Amino acid sequence: MNLKEEILGVNVTALPIETLLEDIDRRIENKDKGRIVAINPEKIMMAQKDPELSKLLNDSAYQIPDGVGVSIASKLLGGSIRWRITGVGMMENLLQRASEKQYRVFFYGAKEETVVKAIGKIKQLHPEIQVAGYLNGYEKDDSVIIDRINEANADIVFVALGSPRQELFIERNMDKLSPAIYQGVGGSFDVFSGNVKRAPIFFRKLGLEWLYRLISQPSRLKRQLALPRFLLLILKQKKRNA
C-alpha cells in the first residue's frame, strides 16, 4: 500500500493512522525496511531550495502530514488528507503498537539523562514494551552505533538528533542496519522524559500546537514565517490547476 499526495513537489502519505500502522506491521513482518519522516510546511519550503532534501523526503517509505498547514494544502489542492500526525504522535502510536505486538525498540539520541528518563517514563506507560537498547546522541561513530543497533536485534529505531541530522544518519546507514522501521523524532525524547511539555489537549485538537510552541518559544517566529509563504504558493498552485 503506497497512497501518496504531492504538495509542491513533496510526497505526503495519505493513509489514516490505523491503516498506516497496519502497513508498518507488514513491513516488520517481511523485514522490509522503511523510513518515516514528518512533513510540515517549513520542511516543504526548505525542499524547494534543497534538491537533496527533497529527494531524501520523497524516497522515504512514509511521509506523515505533520502540521495543520499540510492538511489545509491537501484540501485546497483537491486531496484527501484531513488529519495530522505529529512526529511525537507517530512515536506514541509506534510505542503502543510495539507494546501490543512485542516489537523490539531501540532509542538513539539526546543526552544520556534525557534518553534514560524517557525510556523509564515509556516503560511506565507501556509495561510490556521490549526495549532492545539505547545510545545517547554524543556517540558519533557510525560503526559503533550500527553494531549496537544490530546486536540489539531491534525492529524499530527512534533517532533523536534534530532535523536534518537524524534523517541524514538514517539515510546514510539504513542499508547497514537490520531493523525494519526508522523514525527521526527530533525533540520527542525530551517530551517523553518530561523535560519539555507538549501543548495542552485544547491546542492539539484544534491543530494549533504550532501556536502553543510559538507562545512558549517566541524565538520560533522566524521559522513560523514559512507558513504564510507556503500557503501563498499553494494558492498559486490551485489557480494554475483550475
Helix content: 40-55%
> What order do the helices and strands follow?
EEHEHHEHHEHEHEHEHHHHH
Instruction: Give the structural class.
Output: alpha/beta
Shape: globular
Per DSSP, the total helix count is 13
Q: Uncertain segments of ≥5 residues (pLDDT<50)?
A: none
What integer value in Å does the Rg equal?
Answer: 18 Å
The major sheet is characterized as: 6 strands, parallel
Question: In oligomeric terms, what are we looking at?
Answer: single chain
Taking all residues together, what is the mean pLDDT? 90
Distance between the termini: 29 Å
Strand order of the largest sheet: 4-3-8-7-5-6
Keywords:
two-stranded antiparallel sheet; alpha/beta; 13 helices; 242 residues; 6-stranded parallel β-sheet
Overall description:
Keywords: Cell wall biogenesis/degradation, Glycosyltransferase, Teichoic acid biosynthesis, Transferase. Belongs to the glycosyltransferase 26 family. TagA/TarA subfamily. The protein is of the alpha/beta class and 242 residues long. It has helices at 17-30, 41-49, 51-58, 68-76, 87-101, 112-125, 142-152, 165-173, 188-193, 201-205, 209-216, 221-224, 226-241, and strands spanning 4-7, 10-13, 34-39, 62-65, 104-109, 130-135, 156-160, 181-184. The chain has a six-stranded parallel beta sheet with strand order 4-3-8-7-5-6, with helices on both faces. The protein has a two-stranded antiparallel sheet with strand order 1-2. β7 (156-160), α8 and β8 (181-184) form a beta-alpha-beta unit. α2 (41-49) packs across α3 (51-58) and α2 (41-49) packs across α13 (226-241). The two termini are 29 Å apart. The mean pLDDT is 90.
